[in-house]
Amino acid sequence: MEPEKAEEEEELFDNIRESRQGAGEHNKTPGGYATAWLNADRGRILGPSRSQEVQQGDSVEVGIFGKYVDPKKVRLSPASFVRTGLDQKIIRTLGEYGQNLATAPNEIANANVIALVISEVQQKPAPEAYMGYALYDSDSVLYEQGKVVLSKEARNKHEELIQKLAVKKDGYIEAYLVNETDDNVWFDQFRILSTGPLIVQETHYDPWGVELSGLGYQYAGIKVNPYLYNEG
User: Fold this and answer.
1) Per-residue DSSP letter, 206
2) What is the pLDDT of residues 88-138, one digit of tens each?
3) Helical segments of the chain, H only
4) Going from the N-terminus, what domains does the chain have, and what CATH number goes with each?
5) How far is C-alpha 133 from the chain's CA centre?
6) Gyration radius of the chain over CA positions
7) Per residue in 130-155, is it b (16+ CB within 10 Å) or e — as a string?
């Protein structure tokens, strides 16, 4: 998150510049001094996000360190979240934020993330801070989504949020950071690690050496092996 790494990080993540803050005491990286600071009351609901291509069979790990400083105040109850109108305020803020990003290079990815967060707000009883993820197929159809919520373990110290995923379809993953609360939350070391499968091609044959169609497996992006059974 350090400014000297801004050019590199802004190529990999969206919303880095909008959430970056110098805060060495909340940084997790040795020698680092900047983090992603989010606070819904300050208009900082959506933090860094990333869209990344994945292939069927990939193993993906999404992770982040999160932290908040306990202000020793009364938390919003589920009823007051709706009664105070905070849910609608969050939705309006995200809508305005999306309009401002309408001409951004990753307009579609940003719109997807904002839509996911708004849907979350509309369905929950109380605000949360979390790391969210969504998997899409090659036709941009959402087929899996989820989140890892910051817990009390993040009170005054870093909590590591991790989600491991097995990719079922070719397509892409979107991962993003959100704070719907009016507490200060700091995130650092956001990462998406993708590993291909150990088996990249598998072919089945009958006793006479004829390939059994429909049973084979070919990892996307790998050239077809021309050296098959009995010299192909």
Assistant:
1) -
2) 767 777 777 666 655 555 666 777 887 887 787 777 566 689 999 999 999
3) 6-12, 16-19, 78-83, 86-100, 107-123
4) 3-198 (2.60.120.260)
5) 4
6) 21
7) bbbbbbbeeeeeeeeeebbebeeebe
Q: Which two tokens stand for residue 160?
A: 């590591």
Q: pTM of the full predicted structure?
A: 0.71
| Residue listed under structure tokens 């990939």 | 58
Adjacency order of strands within the sheet including 171-179: 46-54, 171-179, 129-137, 142-149
CA-CA-CA-CA dihedral for 84, 87, 178, 172, to nearest 10: 170
Among 202, 155, 147, 209, CA closest to 178: 147
Rounded Cα distance between 143 and 46, Å, is 22
Q: How far apart are CA 80 and CA 71, in angstroms?
A: 19
Residue 70, SS3? coil
Q: 């992770």: which residue's tokens?
A: 63
